[in-house]
């Protein structure tokens, strides 16, 4: 009677070769797990390059915050007009171009989209320094917004393909540090240049930086679709743009996350863009001191908040994905009293530590918030999901946030003076985070049905 023969065991090097061949030759596996196409060191290089690109984006977007007082003095405009410059002039074109650019990114080469966009917004930032009037400056900011529409959606889409769900929040946390890093660099470097050479030189120098790194972006980044499409011999995404948006909006979890992101941006850009002006008006700092103070606080808070927030979110994701949006919701609520205490501080000595803690909590929201978004959007519409989020976030948040804060500041200033008027306006705008936290927690019960990872 013949016994059962044990299956022949292959040598280890043969097993590894077979595994590698499966990654190269099986379209089904490649399409589901694009992160298996690259080594850990390659993914780290991609993350670094995306971080660098995003940092350039946020420098060019936010440097205007440290230049507002000099621009106000040269062109003799109100705080409401400064809010228009720093808000809607950028956000209008950012939001308008975001959806079609995201569609291009979901169907095409995301590396190419990012490189072209980087060149456009960097050139337009440099042109801001040549504006002969306030309205020419506004027009140049339109161009910056149009270029930056191609930054975040394809970058986050690539990042979500480079990293698996269990590591995604930490990767997003590191990537999202580019926002405060760019903000801090814009404030510190922009403040120094503005103090010594004027606001025009600040725009020109940071614009040139983006132009320099564009060739590096094209050389180092990789598009996983170039491998998976060749193997599958068909397009990655044959959905129409309308179908992609409809599929996203049918998900209750996505709708709530979308609303919460919009609120987060409304607060962030409605309040944070005026912090340097607050330090100058209320606490007597010059532009370089104010820029360096808030820039350092922003950078430190970003490092702590994003790293800790990403690590906690990854651990929660391994237990239950629905805990990730709940974490973001509670952090949004906790940020409100911390920021209002910092804004109410009578001295810079008290303001600095309170503002650092508030910024750390605010930054800890980003990794779980965007990790939750990627969990429910589905891989073939990642760029579209981010673009829709940034469409509403920038049109409403970035567009209206500074304008609302500026109008409130002008109104309060009539009763309390320009310094305290700005302080009270920012404290009022900060309260919008409360319903934002509630919306993030409303998304959690829908994760079981809406998750696509």
Supply database-style keywords.
Growth Hormone, Chain: A; mainly alpha; single chain; 0% strand; 23 helices
Describe this structure in words.
This protein is mainly alpha-helical. The chain has one domain: MFS general substrate transporter like domains (Growth Hormone, Chain: A, Up-down Bundle). Helices cover 83% and strands 0% of the residues. It contains 23 helices and no strands. It has helices spanning 12-25, 27-32, 40-62, 64-75, 79-86, 88-107, 110-128, 134-148, 152-162, 165-176, 178-197, 199-220, 225-232, 241-249, 252-271, 275-283, 287-319, 323-343, 348-364, 366-377, 382-430, 433-443, 447-450.
- What is the beta-strand fraction? under 5%
Report the total helices. 23
Mean pLDDT across every amino acid position: 82
CATH classification, class level: Mainly Alpha
The sequence of SSEs as H and E is: HHHHHHHHHHHHHHHHHHHHHHH
CA radius of gyration is 23 Å
Number of structurally distinct domains: 1
- Tell me about the largest β-sheet: none
DSSP strand count? 0
**CATH architecture label:** Up-down Bundle
Q: The CATH topology, please?
A: Growth Hormone, Chain: A
Write the layout of secondary structure elements.
Blueprint: H1 12-25, H2 27-32, H3 40-62, H4 64-75, H5 79-86, H6 88-107, H7 110-128, H8 134-148, H9 152-162, H10 165-176, H11 178-197, H12 199-220, H13 225-232, H14 241-249, H15 252-271, H16 275-283, H17 287-319, H18 323-343, H19 348-364, H20 366-377, H21 382-430, H22 433-443, H23 447-450
Quick synopsis:
Helix content is 83%, strand content 0%. It is an all-alpha fold and 453 residues long. The protein has a single domain, classed as MFS general substrate transporter like domains (Growth Hormone, Chain: A, Up-down Bundle), CATH 1.20.1250.20.
């Amino acid at each position: 009677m013949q016994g059962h023969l044990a299956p022949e065991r292959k040598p280890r090097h043969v097993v590894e070769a077979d595994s590698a061949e499966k990654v190269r030759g099986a379209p089904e596996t490649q399409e589901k797990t694009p992160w298996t196409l690259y080594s850990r060191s390659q993914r780290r290089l991609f993350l670094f390059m995306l971080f660098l690109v995003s940092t350039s984006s946020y420098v060019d977007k936010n440097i205007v915050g440290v230049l507002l007082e000099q621009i106000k003095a040269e062109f003799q405009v109100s705080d409401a007009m400064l809010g228009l410059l720093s808000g809607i002039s950028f956000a209008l074109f950012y939001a308008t171009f975001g959806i079609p650019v995201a569609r291009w990114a979901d169907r095409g080469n995301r590396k190419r989209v990012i490189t072209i966009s980087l060149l456009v917004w960097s050139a337009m930032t440099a042109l801001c320094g040549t504006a002969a009037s306030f309205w020419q400056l506004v027009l140049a900011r339109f161009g910056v917004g149009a270029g930056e529409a191609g930054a975040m959606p394809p970058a986050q889409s690539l990042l979500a393909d480079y990293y698996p769900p269990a590591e995604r929040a930490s990767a997003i946390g590191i990537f999202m540090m580019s926002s405060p890093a760019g903000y801090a660099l814009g404030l510190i470097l922009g403040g120094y240049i503005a103090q010594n050479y004027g606001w025009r030189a600040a725009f020109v120098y940071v614009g040139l930086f983006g132009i320099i790194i564009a060739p590096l972006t094209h050389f180092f980044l990789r598009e996983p679709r170039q491998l998976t499409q060749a193997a599958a011999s068909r397009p990655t995404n044959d959905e129409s743009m309308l179908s992609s948006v409809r599929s996203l909006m049918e998900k209750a979890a996505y709708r709530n996350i979308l609303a919460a992101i919009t609120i987060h941006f409304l607060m962030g850009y409605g309040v944070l863009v005026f912090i340097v002006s607050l330090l100058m008006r209320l606490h007597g700092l010059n532009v370089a001191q104010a820029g360096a103070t808030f820039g350092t606080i922003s950078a430190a808070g970003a490092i702590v908040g994003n790293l800790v927030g990403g690590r906690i979110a990854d651990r929660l994701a391994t237990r239950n994905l629905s805990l990730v949006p709940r974490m973001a919701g509670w952090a949004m609520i906790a940020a409100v009293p911390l920021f209002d205490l910092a804004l109410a501080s009578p001295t810079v000595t008290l303001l600095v530590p309170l503002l650092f803690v508030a910024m750390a909590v605010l930054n800890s929201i980003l990794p779980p918030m965007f990790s939750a978004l990627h969990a429910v959007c589905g891989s073939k519409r990642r760029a579209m999901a981010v673009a829709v989020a940034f469409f509403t976030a920038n049109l409403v948040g970035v567009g209206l946030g500074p304008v609302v804060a500026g109008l409130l500041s002008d109104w309060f200033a009539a009763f309390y003076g320009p310094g305290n008027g700005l302080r009270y306006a920012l404290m009022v705008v900060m309260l919008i985070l409360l319903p934002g936290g509630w919306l993030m927690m409303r998304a959690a019960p829908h994760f079981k049905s809406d998750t696509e990872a």
